[in-house]
Amino acid sequence: MNNDAFLAACRLAIGEAHVLTNNDDKAAYLTDQRQRYTGEAIAVVKPANTKEVAKLVQLCAQHNIPIVPQGGNTGLVLGSVPDQSGKAIVLSLKRLNRIRAVDPVNHTITAEAGCILQHVQEAAANAGRLLPLSLAAEGSCTIGGNLSTNAGGTAVLRYGNTRELCLGLEVVTAQGEILHGLRGLRKDNTGYDLRDLFIGAEGTLGIITAAVLKIFPQPKAQLTALAALQTPADALRLLTLAQSHCGATLTGFELMSDLCLQLVAKHFPQLQFPFNQRHPQYVLLELSDNESAEHAGSLLESVIGAALEQGICQDAVLASSSIQSRALWQLRESISSAQAKEGKNIKHDISLPISRIAEFIADTDALLQENFPGCRNVTFGHLGDGNLHYNVSPPLNIPAEQFIERQAEINRVVHDNVHRMNGSISAEHGLGALKREEILRYKSPVEIALMKTIKQALDPLNLMNPGKVI
């Protein structure tokens, strides 16, 4: 059958208005978030519910049409856009945007894959609960995308990645069948964990259409502090100190190099820098306390006081209101936008054993300066869970395009050092198409073979997001 017959069947299944074939209508779905790559697609299809997703997948199987599932299209590794062959469809999940249930007693919320993360956070808050998953793109990324990449964010230290927050999934398989797994159970020891197969699979095994997520009691107080330090090693000392003082109330611990905040100051001058002088490193700490603001304040003051007394940090500011706390978080959350305004850069989303982070930064900074003199390291990330965004910007005197041409060389230096220290070249962004070949250098043949076996078993026609991950 030709594409005309396939498209006619799609229109019959979900309505003509939701099958986009005009180039202008498709354009927003074909280009990645960083505006560096544009693919092609037969059409963009926008089903309204799980049954319509299943029908479309069945049609794709019948017509041998590859499927690229897409949520908010905020990914950074080309996982949610099609290749340039023009053979695939983009299946947008944006219309699957209902909150199906909130169960405050079971502490769960059931949301469809196209729900914007921020809207799910708000629905939980309206029920007096907290959905702790939080990241810079929360106003546009979707729950399905968060699950398909096992997103991390700023609260992993306390609550874990998206995988740890998910209790159940509804999935459309590669055959167009519906896996009904929205049970919301914390204990279910009845065989293979199918849920975890689909989380982090980037749509290559099936299409997540809904999920049951854990929610938590709203903390009575959230307090924030920004500490100024000399080195990443001091940041690790501060982390150990904060954990010993605060335990599970420590929910955020973000490392930022001075260059990060210099870029923020340059491109967002309206954001106030809280110190009178600059320091090499900064850590943003947040406590979430279920007892009281006074208790949280006492804990935070004791940590910062001990850190100053022991010479771990040189200065610190404690937010005394939610407005001041928000201002400190804005500094952290504006780093990626400031980098984008500064120009093209080479991004690395890596994870390491926490104990080796300082060593990695020192060694890799030195290696890069030796091989690429003058490059600027924009290093920030979730220190408490070992996730660094280790980004490399061009020297000031070299055009960005010329520097980007050496990306493969720079990646080799960074990724080889990550591997040497038992880390991962993708902590929370996934592999997509961007790192599909790169991962072959670092995963063992046994791991790759097992992944291929799973892919073949669940998607024998290789129609689910082909060319991504493996």
Structure explained in plain terms:
- The strands form 4 sheets. The protein has a 7-stranded antiparallel β-sheet with strand order 15-12-14-13-17-18-16, with helices on both faces. The chain has a 5-stranded antiparallel β-sheet with strand order 5-6-10-8-9, with helices on both faces. It has a 4-stranded mixed β-sheet with strand order 1-2-4-3, with helices on both faces.
- The protein starts with a helix and ends in a 12-residue tail after the last helix.
- It is 37% helix and 20% strand.
- The model has no long low-confidence stretch (mean pLDDT 95).
- Helix 1 runs antiparallel to helix 3.
- A hairpin with a 4-residue loop joins strand 17 and strand 18.
- With 470 residues, it is an alpha+beta fold.
- It contains 17 helices and 18 strands.
Care to give the gist of this entry?
By secondary structure, the protein is of the alpha+beta class. It has 17 helices and 18 strands.
Radius of gyration: 23 Å
- What percent strand? 15-25%
Q: How does CATH name the architecture of the largest domain?
A: 2-Layer Sandwich
Do you know the CATH topology of the largest domain?
Answer: Uridine Diphospho-n-acetylenolpyruvylglucosamine Reductase, domain 3
| CATH secondary-structure class of the largest domain | Alpha Beta
Distance separating the two termini: 29 Å
Mean pLDDT value: 95
Counted beta strands: 18
Pfam families: FAD-oxidase_C, FAD_binding_4
GO biological process, one term: respiratory electron transport chain
InterPro entries: FAD-bd_oxidored_4_C (IPR004113), FAD-bd_PCMH (IPR016166), FAD-bd_PCMH-like_sf (IPR036318), FAD-bd_PCMH_sub1 (IPR016167), FAD-bd_PCMH_sub2 (IPR016169), FAD-linked_Oxase-like_C (IPR016164), FAD-oxidored/transferase_4 (IPR051264), Oxid_FAD_bind_N (IPR006094)
Keywords: FAD, Flavoprotein
